[in-house]
Write a structure and sequence with these properties.
CATH architecture: 4-Layer Sandwich
Shape: globular
Strand order of the largest sheet: 1-14-13-12-3-4-5
Radius of gyration: 17 Å
Mean pLDDT: 75
Number of strands: 14
Largest sheet: 7 strands, mixed
CATH class: Alpha Beta
Low-confidence stretches: 1-35, 300-305
Oligomer: single chain
Number of domains: 1
Number of helices: 7
Order of helices and strands: EEHEHEHEHHEEHEHEEEEEE
Structural class: alpha/beta
């Protein structure tokens, strides 16, 4: 039963994609070394996920609210991750002063390799990617990082759905080889981020690459720990979706302007073995929906209230 693992606190605008994967689309501002290392070793880890179409309509109070959450890390996905106006947004920069941030761009497709390289350079510069980063020397902007000791280990995987996209493939062979290695890393909670909805979404680019989608879901099935997909989609009408794949229940946490959930808040409570997903509106920070699951399906259902 779904109730064995999850608890719905609001059904309005809620569409639940539940899985043992957390997709987090982010590759960006490097975290301060000690900050993230300590985050997952404490009782809980707080994550904010921003996927508004751009930052021009986000009021100063929105950024102030994000800072007040005292999150351990921020993840930007979709169009806002490549928004040039962030460069001059002092409220955004204040957030980065207190919260390590990562970002992944959307899947805008271009056959022009020169334009793609220029876009990549601007993207990495926007997010202060170190000059000696491997992401600057290899194709694509995919990335991952791991924090925390066994028992409270968090892995964040940022998928690049733009750089390798062609008529025949989406992620590309190099990224697939890398991803297979990442999914073998022991982890209690795995957040997989992508700017396109993974599970059933009739407008998602993944529909054009159904074999790759099946391949990704199989990797999730065979991986350790609890996984959640974090995705951004401008046409999404559901906040959370779920799908049974083999013995695992797959979960996708979606946010986008059409469902009025411009950012999400995730609380991983290591002491209570729980993951709390909360969709919020950018206008006033009000909650649209809440969803809960365990860090491990074999453990007792959490009580985070």
């Amino acid at each position: 039963m779904i109730g064995d693992y999850f608890k719905f606190l609001s059904f309005k605008s809620l569409g639940i994609l539940l899985g043992i994967l957390i997709l987090v689309s982010c590759a960006s501002h490097r975290p301060r070394p000690g900050h993230l290392s300590n985050a997952a070793s404490e009782a809980s880890t707080k994550i904010i996920c921003i996927s508004a179409p751009d930052s021009t309509n986000l009021a100063p109070n929105f950024w102030k609210h994000l800072r007040s959450l005292n999150a351990d890390l921020a993840i930007f996905a979709g169009k806002i991750a490549s928004s040039s106006d962030l460069d001059d947004n002092r409220h955004f920069k204040k957030l980065l002063d207190v919260t390590p941030a990562f970002a992944i761009w959307n899947s805008s497709f271009s056959h022009d390799q020169e334009s793609l390289e220029k876009s990549k350079e601007r993207f990495l510069d926007l997010w202060n990617e170190p000059k000696n980063s491997s992401r600057r020397s290899r194709p694509g902007v995919y990335d991952s990082f791991n924090v925390g000791p066994p028992g409270s280990s968090l892995q964040v995987i940022l998928l690049d759905s733009r750089s390798f996209r062609s008529s025949k493939e989406l992620l590309g062979s190099d990224q697939w080889i890398w991803l297979k290695t990442q999914m073998k890393t022991p982890s209690d909670v795995r957040l997989i981020v992508c700017s396109e909805g993974i599970l059933e979404n009739h407008r998602s680019v993944w529909n054009e690459f159904s074999r790759e989608r099946s391949k990704l879901l199989k990797l999730v099935e065979e991986s350790s720990g609890q996984s959640v997909f974090l995705t951004s989609n401008e046409t999404a009408t559901k906040l959370i979706k779920q799908k049974r794949s083999g013995k695992k229940r797959l979960v996708e946490f979606v946010s986008g302007p059409s469902n009025r959930a411009d950012f999400g808040f995730i609380l991983i409570d290591w002491a209570k073995n729980g993951i709390h997903l909360e969709a919020r509106q950018s206008k006033d920070g009000s909650t649209t929906a809440i969803y809960e699951l365990t860090t491990n399906p074999s453990r007792k259902k959490p009580s985070l209230q």
